[in-house]
Amino acid sequence: MRRRSDDGRATTHTPSASAGTEAAFTAADAGGNDLPRDNHAEPGTDKILFARPDLTTVWRQARDYIARYKLLRLTQSTAEDGIHRQTICNLWRIERHADNSVHTYAFDLRQGLWHETEALEEQLLIPLLNSDLDWYALIINRMLHTALNAAGYAELPDETDEDACIDCHYRDGRREQRRGGEYHGKNRGFVPREMMTDFLRRYYHERVLDRENMRGAMKALRKQFFAHIVEPELFSAIGVIDYRQHTVGRYLYYARRRDAVLKVAREHRNLLPLLPAIAPCHWGRDDLFSRKVWVNSAQGAAEAEEIDFAPSPTVSNAETDFLSYSCIRALASPGEWQWLRQASSLVVKAWIESGYNHRLITNLLQAGITGRIPVLALQTVLRRDNLFDCLGVDRRMQRLMSLFIAETKRQWQDRGYRFLRQWLYHQGPAEVQYRLDWLRAEGFAAGFPQKNSTWASLRHRSDEWHARLRTRKKKAEPERHWDSALPSIVIDGITFTPLTSNLALLHEGETMQHCVASYADLCQSNRYRVFTVCDADDKRSTLGITINERGDEARWDQHYGKCNTAVSARVKAAGKKLVTAYNRALLAAPASS
Fold first, then answer.
1. What is the pTM of this model?
2. Residues forming a β-bridge with 105
3. Which residues fall within 8 angstroms of residue 73, CB to CB, at 6 or more apart?
4. At CA 579, angle to CA 577 and CA 585, rounded to 5?
5. pLDDT digits over 542-582, tens only?
6. What is the dihedral of CA 271, 277, 279, 285, to 10 degrees?
7. Cα 143 → chain centroid
8. Could you give the angle at which helices 192-205 and 136-150 cross, rounded to 10 degrees?
9. Is the bond preceding residue 449 a cis peptide, omega within 30 degrees?
10. DSSP letter assigned to residue 439
11. Contact 448, 439 (CB under 8 A)
């Protein structure tokens, strides 16, 4: 390894070569394909593999690297002289020094030396908070590709058009090559792509790697990373930026910019999610989140100016791997910026997901909502810009936002956080959409929502409008009927009633707020049947079943409650029994379906 000693001089350390091959490697080779040691062919290893000398050389050199440098050793860690060090596959090394700075190194297999690099951010996309331990396969896969490339795989001749048509198969454990539908013997000349596939197959499919051992090593890798590399304060700040993307590579990316990230975390922690959209060279600025930068100086301008330090898409790959560049626009007023600065980091994330929609913030600010607002409600408003940004900055939309947030407050106070979360996920947006159907058709033009409007009054007006719409549809569309192989039936205390007309489907769709009416044509062609379902608690749902072309077999298709919410396991099980009963009815009287 090449690194700096305490006095600043460069020192070089080279991993010791293995005295021999590991038994697992040798056992994986067949027919004299033993791994050469120290680049000298052992007896029985001088034969040509794959019918190509160049592929033979790459194969044996790659396996030599793996054995000599012990590249299958997934993780090692040490702590000495104030330096915490973790080595992964003896190829990638991470060091955390006494000042909490992080340095990364890659091992050059050809030179046998360590070199400092920033490329590990791309190589080590290993999740840190995912319980799945099979991610070791990704690390091993990258290690094997690194060994192959160092052995000369990248310098092999390009494939010809004929080579690209080769399809390799394994029958009865033997490799056979197919070209144009004809099989050739296993010693027919390989192409580089096939050699690489066979090389990877030796490790993954011939028990060279013991899965349980590797899962244990993966667990140790994460444990060592947290013990030796992770700085808790920085890790916490990265979690605020995006807790869903905690990987080794992502941590290393922010660790290189540690001082700037921690500066923002200590001064404006809730604004940390904005960092990925700003060029890293600006993160340490004292005026990064100042009003003069984020508020448009030209009040009332039709188009706000772009923030002057928004990142350029032309920066290097290392700069852009974890960044999703969107053009951040300055806000229209100091009040909007003050609102955003005081918002929860979760609300800031939701605003980012809306595409930095400043109109939503303007409407929320001008709506004059007072008191504590559930963060979940603000997240829903910002993420559902298709619902809450259909008029731009407008007083009517501000009143709709106020009524929606007031309803979320009521749900929170009456039924608690858990119910509110489920309501916002399943029913809340559908409730807004239901009212918007009427508002867009008639309500907005008439000045609704008005000052004295309530959430319930909007629902009532929307109900009346939908009823009028159904009446018009009934007059415009002739009623169509079909039969059901089963009449109304009760299973486990749950009533299933067949819907046998297009108007019945239309009414069901309006009542349950889903798209079941669109299945009328399939029902009339005897390819689908719909049942309205009511359990003992008068809780309703809708069951759909498909019928094959012969009309003699039905299959469960879907079963949803209002607004396509999930049904209970008990109701779902009864629906499956209904399908079984329907199949018996089809067999008894197929013509009646």
1. 0.70
2. 93, 116
3. 89, 90
4. 110
5. 999 999 888 888 999 889 888 778 888 899 999 999 999 99
6. -20
7. 25
8. 140
9. yes
10. I
11. yes
| Contact predicate 93/1, CB 8 Å | yes
User: What's the 3-state SS for 130-196?
Assistant: CCCCCCHHHHHHHHHHHHHHHCCHHHCCCCCHHHHCCEEEEECCEEEEEECCEEECCCCCCCHHHHH
Tokens of 58: 């790459």
Main-chain phi, psi angles of 209, to 5 degrees: -100, 125
Residue the block writes with tokens 């309500």: 443
Cα(348)–Cα(360) distance, rounded to whole angstroms? 12
Q: Report the candidate in 569, 570, 542 with the shortest Cα–Cα distance to residue 557.
A: 542
Residue 428 burial (10 A CB sphere; 0-12, 13-18, 19+): buried
For residue 314, is it left (φ>0), alpha (ψ between -120 and 50) or beta? alpha
Contacts (Cβ under 8 Å, ≥6 apart) of 238: 246, 250, 251, 254, 261
The phi and psi torsions of 9 (rounded to 5 degrees) equal -80, 150
Alpha-carbon span 475 to 292, nearest angstrom: 61
* Residue labelled with tokens 């408003």: 381
For residue 272, what are its two tokens? 């940390």
What pLDDT sits at residue 309? Answer: 53
| Complete edge-to-edge strand list for the sheet that includes strand 182-184 | 167-171, 174-179, 182-184
Query: What is the CB-side half-sphere exposure of residue 202 using CA atoms within 13 A?
Result: 21
- Compute the distance between CA of residue 315 and CA of residue 103 in angstroms, rounded to an integer: 22
DSSP string, 476-531: HS---B---SS-SEEETTEEEEEE-BHHHHHHHHHHHTSSGGGGHHHHHTTSEEEE
Mean pLDDT across the stretch 26-38?
A: 35
Q: What is the chain's length?
A: 593
Distances (CA, A) of 419 to 6, 410, 469, 536: 59, 11, 32, 22
- Taking only the tens place, the pLDDT of each residue in 128-146 is 888 888 889 889 999 999 9
Residue 354 in 3-state DSSP? coil
CB 39 within 8 A of CB 61: yes
- 163-175 in b/e form (b: 16+ CB < 10 A) is beebebeeeeeeb
Q: What's the rounded mean pLDDT across residues 31-49?
A: 46
d(CA 43, CA 37): 11
CA distance readout (Å), 373 to 261, 364, 369, 384, 401: 29, 11, 8, 17, 12
**Using CB atoms within 10 A of its CB, is residue 550 exposed (0-12), middle (13-18) or buried (19+)?**
exposed
CB count, 10 Å around CB of 549? 9
Tens digit of each residue's pLDDT (9 = 90 or more) over 498-542 = 999 988 998 898 888 787 888 888 899 999 999 999 998 878 999
In the block, which residue shows the tokens 């100091």?
334
Asked if 178 contacts 76 with a C-beta cutoff of 8 angstroms, the reply is no
413's CB contacts (< 8 A; 6+ apart) are none
